[in-house]
Amino acid sequence: MNIAYKAYNFFLTGFFFIFFPPFWLYTRLTGRYRDGINQRLGFYPKSLVNRISGSPRIWLHAASVGEVSAAVAIIESLERLMPHGAIILSTTTEHGQALARDKLQSKATCVYAPIDFIVSVRKALSTIRPDILVCLETEIWPNWLFEARRMGVRLALANGRISVRSIKGYLKIRGLIREALRQVESFSMIREADAQRLMVLGVPREKIVVNGNAKYDLLLPMADPSIKGKIEKFYNLNENIPVFVAGSTRGSEHEIVVDVYEKILETLPETLLIPSYHGTAAFGKSPPHKRYGYKARVFMPIQNRY
Hints:
By secondary structure, the chain is an alpha/beta fold. The protein has two domains: 214 residues, Rossmann fold; 81 residues, no CATH class. Helices cover 47% and strands 15% of the residues. The protein has a seven-stranded parallel sheet with strand order 3-2-1-4-5-6-7, sandwiched between helices. Strands 8-9 form a two-stranded parallel sheet. It is globular, with a radius of gyration of 24 Å. The protein starts with a helix and ends in a 15-residue tail after the last helix. 27% of the residues are buried. The C terminus is likely disordered.
């Protein structure tokens, strides 16, 4: 076990014993953050654990609302592939927990994730006893990964993404992150750029696949075929007209969109640009399309026009 991991646990243990007692007192006095505090320490009620039945036991961890959306899509696929499996979904935030319970109900056992304190992680893993642990997006917690691997749990990262900002932070603690990621058997990343950044952190290419964003899988069953016809009529489109949609642009993004649009026009001159400006930018004194010399028809939100 490398020195970076030992140092991580040394400082984390000190941090826990210094700050947790006053935090616990704060929750008791104010009532804030009380929901799930025992679970965050790794203690799950027996009644909840007894509801987990089936094999294999697959534990997915989603930090908050955004990750939960991806988790829901993955869980629906797992239900089809492994109808007799048991699904556990953990979240870090209260909003994420509320969404998970609302969306999944009886499809998964929803719990709060333990903090990455080694004692809490060990207690949680030994109580839930997962066969597989899947962390979503950028949830890289060293103690989770080391302890799960030590207990024989198979590990994966799904719907993974690593931003430019994130990798700068990871590179500052490269020794710890590289060793933590070494415990993971498989990585499913959203984009090739995410895969490349993961390789910079020392993950072999053969462990990585690029599968896109699982959140979009959740949208497919919600698609309404009639909307296509309405949009074509609204914008006077036909199947031969290419369309470039730029959603919720703001600030310097307007210039980027225009630069890209002008490059597209060089090869596809009939392309229609549909920008969706953030806020009220389109209705100000100097809307973006006028600043860049384009004529435009400005509409209120589309849903009000159908």
